[in-house]
Design a protein that fits this description.
The chain has 156 residues and is α+β, with helices and mostly antiparallel strands. The protein is 20% helix and 12% strand. It is built from four helices and three strands. The chain has helices spanning 40-44, 58-67, 113-122, 147-152, and strands spanning 85-90, 95-100, 129-134. The chain has a three-stranded mixed β-sheet with strand order 1-2-3, with helices on one face.
Amino acid sequence: MSDQKPAFSVEEVEAAPAPPRARVDDAVPPPAERRRDYLDGFLAEKPADADPAGPGGAIYEGVIQALKEIFDPEIPVNIYDLGLIYGVEVSEEASVAVTMTLTTPHCPVAESMPGEVEMRVAAVPGVRDCDVNLVWDPPWDMAKMTDEAKLELGML
């Protein structure tokens, strides 16, 4: 081996100095004002607020999503796509009224399904309370199912 110096050296220190703290005085000034362009009017326009109680509103859509998570125990399709929900009304005070039916009056979940619907809808953020109206007229038939439900059940 030859007597060459190593390519690097090791320096031992007790502690490194703390980095300087950021100060407002040290801040970089903002860039020059941006030129106005044709997008200014478009970007400044705010979207119209959707009525939270109407279709497309946050509460209404949240209720529909909650209903789509409830499945009929005998049919592997949610009750909304199955056509069991006849109506959803959201008042200005965020009270929700759901009008629904069952596939048959002798349905095994006739006692528990309305309670589950009430519980799930009442849990939607923004909903004050929920009333479920179970009706038998008009009676449910397969024509009330969505195309997605028919496809799921092999009817399309």
